[in-house]
Amino acid sequence: MSEKNITTDIITLTRHVLDEQRKHKEASGDLTILLNAVQLGCKFVATNVRKARLLNLVGLAGGAVNVSGDEQKKLDVISNEIFINALRSSGRVAVMVSEEDEDAIIVEEETRGKYCVVFDPLDGSSNIDAGVNVGTIFGIYKIKDESNGTISDVLRPGREMVVAGYCMYGSSANMIISVGNGVNGYTLDNAIGEFILTHPNIQIPQRGKIYSVNEGNAKYWDEACTEYFNSLKFTEGKNPYSARYIGSMVADVHRTLLYGGIFAYPADKKSKNGKLRMLYECFPMAFLTEQAGGKATTGKERVLDITPQKIHDRCPIFLGSKEDIEDIEEIYKRHN
C-alpha cells in the first residue's frame, strides 16, 4: 500500500463520543468515561472469544446454571467478571444488572456513580463451540435525580435509556451503539486497539425481504403469529421472504439492522411471556431499532413503553423494518 492511501484522520468511538460531548456544555464527561469502560470490556471479551478453543474456555463451567436456567459456559462466567470489574472501576456506575447474576449489583458507596448498566455479557454463547457469532448487549440508564442508586433505577421503561448498544464477536468485533441521536457502527482495529467508525448513521430499510424466527416453536404460536409468518411465505402474487435464523440474537439483529426485514421471538403456549429478557436483551435492541428508523413491538404494544416489575422479566418481541412491523401490528389488532 502506498503512503498516500493510508488514512491518518480516523474517527474512533472515543473521538466520536468526545465530539458529541463538546456539543453539550452541561456534559460532565461521566458518560464518556463509562463508555470507555464498556469498550474495554468488549475488547477484553473479544480477545477471549478468539482464543476460547486454545485456552479451553468452551464447554460448561462445572454444571453451573444462570438465573434464566441456561447452563453457564466458562466464557460466560469470565465475560461477566470482565464487565463487572471494568464498570465498577470506572467509578461512574451505581447499579449493574447482568443476565448471569440473580440479584442486581449495588456498587459500594465510595465508588458509586450516577449511571446504571444492564447487560448480557455473552449472548448466544451456546453456539460458541460451532464458531457462530456471539456478542455483548448493554443498556445504560441515568439514576433518578432523588436517588442514590437502587433497583428502582433500572425498573423503568426502555425509552428512558440514555445509551444502548451491542458488540458482536465474529470475524471482526463490531460495536453498534446509540446515545439517542441515531445509530453508528464501529469495527475494532486490532492493530491499534480502537473501535473505528465504519457504519455511520445506520438506517434500517423501510421494508425487508428476510424474516428471522425459530420456526421450531411454530406449533406453539398463537393465531396472529401463525397468520403473519404464513403470509410471508405463501401470499399469492408476492415473492416469499427468505428465512434466516442464527439463534444468536446479536447476530440476527445485526443482519436485520443492515438489511431490513423482521426478527422475532414471540410469546407462545410454551413461553407465555416470551423467552428473551426485557432489560438487557429486548430494551437495548428495541432502542437501537427505533433509533435506526425501525419499530419494535410485542404485537400488542411498543416494547420500549413496558415497565418491568423484576430485573429478569421477559417479553415477546418483533423488531425490524417499519412497514414489516406495522403488518404484524395490524394482524394482532384484527385478532384481538
TrEMBL record:
Record's subcellular location: Cytoplasm
Catalytically driven reaction(s): beta-D-fructose 1,6-bisphosphate + H2O = beta-D-fructose 6-phosphate + phosphate
Entry keyword annotation includes Cytoplasm: yes
One of the GO BP terms on file: gluconeogenesis
GO-annotated molecular function: fructose 1,6-bisphosphate 1-phosphatase activity; metal ion binding
EC main group: hydrolase
Annotated Fructose-1-6-bisphosphatase class 1 C-terminal domain residues: 204-333
Pfam families named in the record: FBPase, FBPase_C
Obligatory cofactor(s): Mg(2+)
GO CC term (a single one): cytosol
Keywords: Carbohydrate metabolism, Cytoplasm, Hydrolase, Magnesium, Metal-binding
Domain Fructose-1-6-bisphosphatase class I N-terminal: 11-200
UniProt KW Magnesium keyword: yes
Stated family: Belongs to the FBPase class 1 family.
Protein name: Fructose-1,6-bisphosphatase
Originating organism: Glomus cerebriforme
Upper classification of the organism: Eukaryota, Fungi, Fungi incertae sedis, Mucoromycota, Glomeromycotina
